[in-house]
User: What shape does this take?
Amino acid sequence: MNFKDRITKIKKIHSIISSTLFFVVLLFCISNTDELNLADHSLSHFGINYKTSTLWNWSLFFLGVVLYLHALRSIFRYYTDGKISSNLIILFSISSLSLLLTALVDMRFTIHNFFAISYFIGYIISIFLFGYKLLSFDFRIGISSIIISLACLIFPIITTYIFTGWAIPELIHTLFILLWVVMLSFDREWKQLLKKIGF
Assistant: This one.
């Protein structure tokens, strides 16, 4: 196995472990806060509950760093145009910074909501533009990114009409973000799968 193959393997393992750890933390927080109903609350309540606040806020911070590093790696892998890369780097940087600030400033402060919304909207736009710019030279990854970005927006909005709290929409948004991370980590396998189904 050469150096490039080793890096690819590490990237795949890293994406799986990072995604798994997030959901392990989530399950831990849910199991230790019986008083919080996900259908009626937001995930940010884990950040102020004395049983889960430290673990939850650190996991969000870690997730923000992981997403930012993944975005940078993906940009430099798929793009060679410096101008395009710079624009995407700025968008992903703002979105990731918003998630970091969401972790550092809990919901007891009003500005927490601004940071959370900035991350929510910013990452959707970032993934959409990442995919849109890719359409001309990597159609399958480009269109997949666009579809995931739209799913990040549409499905959470739909669930707000079903649940009174924001936790379920936030979880759906996070699930699609992590799906995008895993997809790019296994991009070769993903494109082969799309070819097999005629896409």
Observations:
- The first helix runs from residue 3 to 31.
- The chain is about 75% helix and 0% strand.
- The chain has a mean pLDDT of 87.
- The chain has one domain: 8-196.
